[in-house]
Design a protein that fits this description.
Elements: E1 3-10, H1 13-21, H2 28-36, H3 41-45, E2 53-57, H4 64-74, E3 82-89, H5 99-116, E4 122-127, E5 135-142, H6 158-171, H7 189-196, H8 202-216, H9 222-231, E6 234-239, E7 242-248, E8 254-258, H10 259-262, H11 268-280, H12 296-305, H13 311-321, H14 324-432
Antiparallel strand pairs: 1-3, 2-4, 3-5, 4-5, 6-7, 7-8
Helix pairs in contact: 1-4, 5-6, 8-9, 8-12
């Protein structure tokens, strides 16, 4: 059953990609594990990066860091830079020791990216290191939409991605989770690990006390139930459709949990239905069997199974059950601290607001200066065009004058040649017909 583990955002897209890609960071322990599982040693030695397979949508996964950064700069994207989706595959579906399944896992991640983020840059890196050596994908989504430039804002899209992931799993004949059935108890991986080590789990302690309060509620009413919880050191809060519980655990730590985080058996509707059902039964009638997850015997077994292991735990838990006053004081201090934190946050918000106003004012001034610079550049361009036109006219006038001077010079030289020719002809004529000189002699 392929699952969507978590969806987070990253302030540094480069750091998110560096971790998912893990260039030259394949752990030696993972290589040794693969060899122990019978993977071809030649194939194992070729593995250098933490990501054994990678692919991309609208981006080259090898150069995703620089390409995504260029896209964010082009759209002036600020704030969070990438969204990371973790997609995991159990060993019953995909074998981490089978290189063919590495490719399959990466292909499933790429299909999820194509359906969920068609207009975004997405890099898919498949890893198999970590606890249990389960195949999982790091799907890195760049924030800006490559068509519109708008940031990806569906950060709380776990249900949508899970639905798409289930559809893809069904198409590839992989197992899926039946999300319509609710587990009587919800346990985290940390709880399972603590249980396996036989260590104290505060949520189990809380469940045990709630189960015991339900069994001991003689009047089978919410008031009686809440009183038994108070005697066990638990304060219950009615939050509309939900219950939430808080108490001091065996280590004197203040703990708080919502009913749905503990499991379906501890939600408001389930508990009220159980109390109402028990209230309808005659006193002489033994409790009837109801849904498997609501049986009285199951409650008793749950209480017994969650009994603290050691006598010291019992003494500590008993003292914790009598610590309602201490819890009230702790809650009061917590609320006072919360008010102080809220006041500090308000001061910080006012400072941020003033800073934003200054930034806005500076931006406005900067834009005005930019507008004035643009006007000056336009005027300078106009002046340059005027100077260029004047220079072209001046050049044309000079060329015209030069041509006129050359024409005049040619005409002058031609006239001189004609005059010389005329003088030569006159001289020749004078030689041919000499003129007698008049010496003034009277005849």
């Amino acid at each position: 059953m392929a699952t969507i583990g978590k969806i987070t955002t990253a302030s540094s897209g480069s750091a998110a990609i560096d971790y998912a890609y893990g260039r030259n960071k394949m752990p030696a322990a993972t290589k040794d594990w693969l060899k122990q599982q019978g993977v071809d040693p030649a194939t194992v030695e070729q593995l250098q990066n933490r990501a054994v397979v990678m692919s991309g949508l609208n981006v080259d996964p090898e150069y995703a860091k620089t390409q995504m950064k260029a896209t964010r700069m082009a759209f002036s994207t600020r704030g969070k830079q990438t969204t990371r989706v973790i997609q995991s595959f159990p060993t019953i579906d995909l074998d981490p020791a089978d290189p063919h399944d590495w490719q399959t896992a990466n292909q499933l991640g790429l299909e999820l990216a194509k359906q969920a983020f068609p207009d975004y840059q997405v890099a898919v890196y498949t890893q198999l290191d970590g606890k249990g050596h389960k195949l999982h994908n790091h799907i890195i989504v760049n924030m800006p939409n490559i068509r519109t430039g708008e940031k990806y804002h569906e950060h709380q899209s776990w249900q949508r991605l899970s639905r798409i992931n289930d559809e893809i799993s069904q198409e590839h004949n992989l197992s899926i989770i039946d999300r319509n059935t609710r587990a009587p108890e919800r346990r985290t991986m940390a709880e399972w690990q603590l249980n396996a080590k036989n260590e104290y789990v505060w949520k189990d302690d809380l469940r045990r006390r709630i189960d015991k309060a339900i069994l001991e509620s003689s009047k089978n009413s919410y008031k009686d139930f809440s009183e038994h919880l108070t005697q066990s050191g638990i304060i219950i809060h009615d939050r509309g459709k939900n219950f939430s519980y808080e108490f001091l655990d065996a280590d004197k730590k203040h703990r708080r949990a919502r009913g749905k985080t503990l499991g379906a058996d501890y939600e408001k509707e389930t508990i009220l239905n159980e109390l109402e059902r028990q209230n309808r039964q005659p006193a002489t009638e033994l409790p009837r069997l109801i849904e498997p997850n609501r049986q009285i015997e199951q409650r008793k077994r749950a209480v017994e199974s969650r009994e603290p292991i050691s006598e010291s735990r019992k003494r500590t838990t008993a003292k914790s059950g009598q610590s309602v006053d201490s819890l009230t004081i702790a809650i009061g201090r917590t609320r006072q601290t919360a008010r102080t934190v809220a006041n500090n946050l308000n001061k910080q918000n006012s400072r941020k607001q003033r800073f934003r106003e200054r930034i806005t004012s500076f931006t406005k001034r900067f834009r005005e200066i930019g507008h004035q610079i643009n006007q000056f550049i336009q005027r300078l361009d106009c002046y340059n065009r005027t100077v260029n036109n004047f220079q072209q006219r001046l050049k044309a006038d000079q060329q015209a004058k030069q041509q006129a001077f050359q024409s005049f010079q040619q005409r002058f030289e031609a006239d001189q040649k004609v005059q010389k020719q005329h003088e030569l002809e006159q001289q020749q004529l004078n030689k041919s017909f000499p003129i007698e000189e008049d010496h003034g002699i009277e005849r």
